[in-house]
Design brief:
About 30% of the residues lie in helices and about 25% in strands. It is α/β, with parallel strands linked by helices and about 325 residues long. The chain has a domain at about 5-45 and about 55-85 and about 230-330: P-loop containing nucleotide triphosphate hydrolases (Rossmann fold, 3-Layer(aba) Sandwich), CATH 3.40.50. The strands form two sheets. It has an eight-stranded mixed β-sheet with strand order 6-7-8-3-9-10-12-11, sandwiched between helices. Helix 3 (about 115-125) runs parallel beside helix 5 and helix 4 crosses helix 5. The protein starts with 5 loop residues before the first strand and ends in a 9-residue tail after the last strand. The relative contact order is 0.13.
């Protein structure tokens, strides 16, 4: 993929959340380092998977890209426009092109609104369709995501989790966006329903040329849907590569540990495989370790790892890794 094909360019993105004490006179007592100096590109029509443990900053990146959280520093350039520099009406206009599918299909839908009102609300807010046009568009979108258009007058509590997530997908599609952040869209669903929702996302991508940032912690599902995969640990990206490269030849010890825990549907291979058990707990993002963030749990750490933060560098074409000793695994 060429640089001309880049739809979204995230550069040196930082998002810190202040910790305060007191009610009237709030005193700053600490900082949560949710995202620290993260850079990556997403190309038109591709799916970039973003994986990592809970609390590593995946969802914060997604929300910061959409400017639901304003970044502490860094830039988010969408189609040549830096979203960080936009405010008010300018930002509202460009949000028509970038949408989000939320993790919880129960909390993300307003229980007081009908399905038709939920899906049609973005069209009404942006004033780009009449009442009749909105009704027609809602029915078309429901059909598109595999639901009966007659369901438009029903309320969210009348649907299952999988059906609610389809409604969330329909809402995200209502403004015909080019880029969608999928924030763990299947983690709250039954396994049998997860595959249906992922297949739906793939079909819609093919049909409309959509670009996805797919955030998840299920490595098997990410492998299935993603073109490239970024692995995140404690606020930083430690490895980024094509899906097949990352899963067959991981170069970062953390990625190797994650992949060693993924079940293989082959008993003979599963018996031969050696699992990597990481020692200790994930450090607190309030007080992250110096040097390499992973050094407190890394099986190959040396003194340089505690002192110097590794550069996020390209070791092989398209394969980026932040590890002082990644060459050992080439």
């Amino acid at each position: 993929m060429t640089t001309n094909n880049v739809l979204l360019r995230v550069k040196n993105l930082v998002k810190h959340f202040p910790i305060t004490q007191g009610i009237l006179f709030q005193k700053h007592v600490g900082t949560v380092h949710a995202v620290d100096d993260v850079s990556f590109n997403i190309h038109k029509g591709e799916t970039l998977g973003l994986v990592g443990e809970s609390g590593c900053g995946k969802s914060t990146i997604g929300r910061t890209i959409l400017q639901l959280y304003r970044p502490t520093s860094g830039s988010v350039v969408y189609d040549g426009v830096d979203l960080v520099a936009l405010h008010g009406e300018e930002l509202r206009k460009i949000r028509r092109n970038i949408q989000m599918i939320f993790q919880d299909p129960y909390a993300s839908l307003n229980p007081r609104m009908s399905v038709g009102e939920i899906i049609g609300e973005p069209l009404a807010v942006h004033k780009i369709a009449s009442k009749n046009e909105i009704k027609e568009r809602v029915e078309h979108l429901l059909e598109l995501v595999g639901l009966n258009p007659a369901f438009a007058n029903r309320f969210p509590h009348e649907f299952s989790g999988g059906q609610r997530q389809r409604i969330g997908v329909a809402r995200a599609l209502s403004l015909q966006p080019a880029f969608i952040v999928c924030d763990e869209p299947i983690s709250a669903l039954d396994v049998s329903i997860q595959a249906q929702v992922v297949n739906l996302l793939e079909e819609l991508q093919e049909q409309f040329g959509l670009t996805y940032l797919f955030i998840a912690h299920d490595l098997s599902m990410v492998q299935h849907i993603s073109d490239r995969v970024a692995v995140m640990y404690l606020g930083v990206i430690v490895e980024l590569a094509d899906q097949d490269k990352l899963y067959t030849k991981p170069l970062h010890p953390y990625t190797q540990a994650l992949l060693s825990a993924v079940p293989i549907p082959n008993p003979a291979s599963e018996v031969k495989r050696k699992s990597i058990i990481l020692q200790g707990e994930v450090p607190s993002p309030i007080n992250p370790p110096s040097g390499c963030r992973f050094h407190t749990r890394c099986p190959i750490k040396e003194s340089i790892c505690t002192e110097t933060r590794p550069e996020f560098r390209e070791l092989e074409p398209g394969h980026f890794v932040a590890c002082h000793f990644a060459e050992r695994f080439i």
